[in-house]
Task: inverse folding
């Protein structure tokens, strides 16, 4: 679902940026953040490390990393959107994280120094790009020998509910449709391990986190994602205003119906250590 000048794609990022998209990104972190935190803790992100977060959005993960690397470490968050970074800078400053800074750049051409980072990560970035391998190559080039490359992404094609509903089946179809329309991979998460291999990592590690909710705001993440994407769906001609109205009502009903569990898109976590012999 993405844009990219230097990656050679002309489609634009179809989700909201800045204040309009902030709440959904925070909800995304509520749903998927615990497994991100667990993985980064297991990878022993520690004081003094130099870390880069690519496609950092409003800086949720970058700020978490800032706490872990402490005042002796450094975190740089990269995003194409100045609007996202304005919110990220505001939050990092409010948290007193002077070791966290943010720069506007493209994921495929970050302008960051090569061979300089202990950890380079991205979350929910590659599924927005037409050429995710280019971004992963760029991220890999930023690592010191022995540094860790981490990418987390979802497989949107299997968003569903239990019991199965036409509404969630259609949401999954529309998510896949908009990705295909702009040239990105809706099942990026499921293809991440293979992508790591294509950029030269022979033994990437993988975990999968599939949150599911019966109630609460977290249950509604993909409903809200659908709502944010309505203008893009209509522009792409893959739905109609009448279908949007019916789906909006049905998803809202399911959102508060405790008899239905929403099975979120599984998030794949893939990581590998840079090594000249790998
Ligand atoms: C879904 S958000 C995820 C943000 C953050 N990583 C998180 O997990 O909360 C994707 C972010 O990638 C950024 N983005 C999209 N295409 C990009 C590109 N080619 N280069 C850099 N950032 C990009 C968007 O501006 C957006 O902030």
Result:
């Amino acid at each position: 679902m993405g844009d990219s000048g230097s990656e050679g794609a002309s489609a634009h990022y179809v989700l909201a940026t800045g204040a309009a998209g902030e709440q959904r990104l925070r909800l995304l972190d509520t749903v998927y953040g615990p497994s991100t935190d667990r993985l980064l803790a297991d990878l022993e992100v520690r004081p003094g490390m130099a870390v880069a977060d690519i496609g950092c959005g409003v800086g949720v993960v970058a700020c978490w990393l800032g706490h872990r690397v402490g005042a002796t470490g450094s975190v740089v968050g990269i995003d194409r959107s100045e609007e996202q970074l304005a919110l990220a800078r505001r939050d990092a400053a409010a948290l007193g994280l002077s070791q966290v800074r943010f720069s506007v750049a493209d994921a495929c051409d970050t302008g960051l120094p090569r061979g300089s980072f202990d950890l380079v990560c991205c979350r929910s970035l590659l599924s927005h790009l037409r050429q995710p391998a280019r971004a992963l190559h760029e991220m890999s080039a930023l690592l010191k020998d022995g540094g860790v490359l981490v990418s987390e992404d979802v497989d949107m094609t299997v968003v569903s509910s239990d019991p199965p509903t036409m509404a969630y089946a259609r949401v999954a179809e529309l998510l896949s449709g908009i990705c295909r329309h702009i040239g990105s991979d809706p099942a990026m998460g499921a293809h991440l391990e293979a992508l790591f291999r294509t950029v030269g990592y022979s033994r990437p590690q993988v975990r999968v986190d599939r949150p599911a909710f019966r109630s609460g705001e977290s249950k509604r993440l993909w409903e809200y994602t659908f709502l944010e994407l309505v203008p893009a769906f209509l522009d792409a001609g893959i739905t109609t205003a009448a279908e949007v109205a019916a789906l909006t009502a049905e998803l809202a009903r399911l959102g508060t119906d405790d008899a239905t569990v929403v099975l979120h898109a599984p998030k794949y976590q893939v990581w590998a250590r840079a090594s000249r012999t790998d």
About this structure: The helical segments are 19-42, 60-69, 82-94, 132-141, 166-182, 188-198, 221-236, 241-255.
